[in-house]
Amino acid sequence: MDWKKEYERWLNFDEIDKELLEELKSADDIHDRFYKGLEFGTGGLRGVLGAGINRMNIYTVRKATQGLADYLNATDLPKKVAVGYDSRIKSDVFAKESAKVLAANNITTYIYPRLEPTPALSWAVRYYGCGAGINVTASHNPAKYNGYKVYGADGCQINLEVADKILKAIEKVDCFEVPTVDFDEAEKQGKIIVIEDKCVDDFVDAVYNQKVGDGEGTDKLKLVYTPLNGAGLECVKKLLKKMNINNVSIVKEQEMPDGNFPTCPYPNPEIREAMQKGLDLCDEVKPDLLLGTDPDCDRCGTAVPNKQGGYTLITGNEMGIILLDYICKTRTKLGTMPKNPIAVSTIVSTDMIDPIAEKYGVEIKRTLTGFKFIGEQIGFLEAKGEQDRFIFGFEESYGYLSGAHVRDKDAVNATLLICEAAAYYAKQGKSLLDVITDLYEEYGYYRNALVSVEFEGDTGMTKMQSIMTSLRENVPEKIGEYKVEGFVDYNADGTGLPKSNVLEFRLQGGAKFMVRPSGTEPKIKVYLSAVAKTQKEADAINEELEKVAYQVLK
Questions:
Q1: What is the reported pLDDT for 520?
Q2: Average pLDDT, whole number, for the chain?
Q3: Catalytically active residues, by annotation
């Protein structure tokens, strides 16, 4: 591609958006904006907002939507698409542009009238019997990003095969020649249908029906909640009301939707900075729980009181373990555990899941990173009429799901489970921090850490590829002081999973060192795992491996 010619084409396009044109005229990073097109992967699009083919704007969104429309019209799938969006800058604009393109292609569009959680979009796809879904979100990325996720008829993010077909269709589209219709006129004609409140209410009811126990004691809980200026407020409040949890303090600075995320540049509940306003409020009101949902409300972070009078954040792996054990324990006690139960997690999540599953007779399935692969497993079970065997799915990045009501991680569902578990253990005089400590004492201290290094700019991808190639072709005998006892290249055959650019090094003593380029951001992540008799010993191993990880990524 001649990036200079493409730049000139954008400058000279008669109907170009005036705001984007002014941005192009003053930009000093033209090469980065035009040296390649924004990549459409299994998660759809994700990129920096702005003018250019390597940016999120109305033209790249229209192009992707036209490709999706061409794909859908060439299949036997229903010619209906559900569209949702979050609080990010221009999310509502991109959602409406998508609807206008779909309507121009004679595809009926069901669009939410306001921002809603990602799982509510997954719900709407099946609720209306759609052939696909679109959710405009960049999840937990910084404010300068937005994204465009595509869902299949099963309510799950599209798989690798479908993504490839849509990509081929997109590549044939000129971003300036995509047909659109007037939104209001299409709505009058029934080509665009605004989703009614009943759909959202039914989604919340479906989440509430995932309760594991009797919910006794939830009405006594005192909460602090932050939606991190995102889409979670409406559905989480409706759920808490159904659970009779009325003592809820909302973090005011993060209550209302705001795509600039003024109090947390990186609105990810995995990061302490994002949860800090909530922690500050905890110091004032002294709740039993702090809950934080990310901007599209599919991830949920938690903090609980500690014995020093403060609050401790619980990691994604730790909460996954707490909830798995709680679900197994409670369903076994109540006699509601299905025959041959299945729990699903990802290859980069904690190995602590294995001994717990063994104790309760639960089969564990491991998937590639990305909750769409967990949702896919539910679909496989449903095809055999065995979806009730699925009891829980989680990933280390704060994603949880305990039912087949949706096919994506669900922070509304996580809110239900966390509150229910907290109330259950409160009756025993325990906090969730006590619970994870007890589990560590029983099964061993499985501790995890994450190293993440960004590689931005037009040379970033080349550097990332070089690092992965070097590790793949020159497998080290030792990582730090630990002998490499096993190596898995998930991009090779024989793993039982789709090929993926992930490298796993199994180290002596049960430690694990996994390297994976992010699928949504220009960064490489190294997942560290260690197990020992004490927390101090396990954390020391990870600290040593963390130093090695930074050396490797340099």
A1: 64
A2: 96
A3: 139
- The reply to whether 317-443 shares the fold of 3-195 is yes
- Using an 8 Å Cβ cutoff, are 48 and 56 in contact? yes
Q: What is the DSSP secondary-structure string of 255-276? A: TS--TT-TT-SS--TTSHHHHH
Q: Which CATH architecture has domain 317-443?
A: 3-Layer(aba) Sandwich (3.40)
Confidence of residue 363 (pLDDT cuts 50, 70, 90): very high
DSSP reduced 3-state for 188: helix
Residues across the chain: 554
Q: Tell me, what DSSP letter sits at residue 253? A: G
DSSP string across 203-242: HHHHHHTT--S--TTGGG-EEEEE-TTSS-HHHHHHHHHH
Amino acid (1-letter code) at residue 115: L
Cβ-Cβ contacts under 8 Å for 540 (sequence gap 6 or more): none
Q: What is the pLDDT of residues 160-172, one digit of tens each?
A: 899 999 999 999 9
- For the domain made up of 3-195, the CATH class stated in words is alpha beta
Phi then psi for 369, rounded to 5 degrees?
-65, 135
Are the CB atoms for 111 and 195 separated by under 8 Å? yes
Check residue 160 and give its pLDDT: 85
Phi–psi pair at 201, nearest 5 degrees: -60, -40
Q: How far is CA 85 from CA 26, 82, 154, in A?
A: 30, 11, 19
Domain boundaries, the chain: 3-195, 204-212+219-314, 317-443, 445-553
Predicted local confidence at residue 519, as pLDDT? 66
Range of weakest confidence among 330-339, 430-439, 446-455: 446-455
H/E segment holding residue 527: strand 523-532
Report the DSSP pairing between strands 482-489 and 503-507: antiparallel
pLDDT bracket for residue 460 (50, 70, 90): confident
Question: Where do we find the tokens 């994506």?
Answer: 408
Cα separations (Å) of 326 from 163, 213, 354, 389, 422?
36, 10, 15, 16, 10
CATH superfamily, domain 204-212+219-314, is: Alpha-D-Glucose-1,6-Bisphosphate, subunit A, domain 3 (3.40.120.10)
Measured in degrees and rounded to the nearest 5, phi and psi for residue 165 equal -65, -40
* Count helices and strands in the chain by DSSP H and E runs: 18, 21
Q: What is the CATH code for 445-553?
A: 3.30.310.50
Distance of CA 336 to the CA centre of its chain: 29
The pTM (predicted TM-score) of the whole model is 0.94
Cα(first)–Cα(last) distance of the chain, in Å?
Answer: 30
